[in-house]
Specification:
SH3 type barrels, single chain, alpha+beta, elongated, 44% helix, six-stranded antiparallel β-sheet, 6 strands, disordered N terminus, 155 residues
Length: 155
């Protein structure tokens, strides 16, 4: 029963309290690439990033492609998947009868199915945010700035 209470209490943590940092992958002119940079803001015609513990200012005019990845999607997917798995597990737990060799109760059945739902949900949640790189080549600095702003603001 303690396991069941701990699992249920996890779902009362507000999902919007999860970290929503934006991680960027940038392809720059002259075949330069910045991987796994953390978004810090836009100042003038430069992006302010944090990469490898160093603050970087990247001129927007040098960006040819950008991909935005959001932290927290795996946790959100796991929470949704485990929630659905828990609900199905409750129904299955009520209908389950103890097997001769295994003495399963409603709580353990719900817990097992909740864990499987969490794993499936985490995979689905992580795939949801695997966005394609957005090409910015040939756009003006103002167009690039607008596109990047929309990408960062998107949920």
């Amino acid at each position: 029963m303690k396991q069941f209470i701990a699992l249920v209490s996890f779902f009362f943590v507000p999902l919007n309290a999860l970290a929503q940092d934006h991680y960027l992958w940038l392809k720059l002119s002259e075949n330069r690439v910045i991987l796994n940079a953390t978004w810090r803001g836009m100042e003038g015609d430069s992006l302010q990033l944090l990469s490898g513990g160093k603050s970087l200012f990247v001129p927007i005019e040098e960006i040819e492609q950008i991909r935005v990845m959001r932290e927290g999607s795996i946790v959100e997917g796991a929470a949704v998947g485990a929630g659905i798995g828990l609900a199905v597990g409750m129904v299955a737990g009520f209908l389950a009868r103890p097997v001769r060799d295994q003495n399963r109760t409603m709580e353990t059945s719900a817990l097992y199915i909740g864990i499987v739902g969490g794993i499936i949900g985490s995979v689905a949640g992580s795939l949801r945010d695997m966005e394609q790189a957005v090409p910015l080549e040939g756009k003006s600095v103002a167009e690039k700035r607008e596109t990047i702003g929309k990408l960062i603001a998107a949920p």
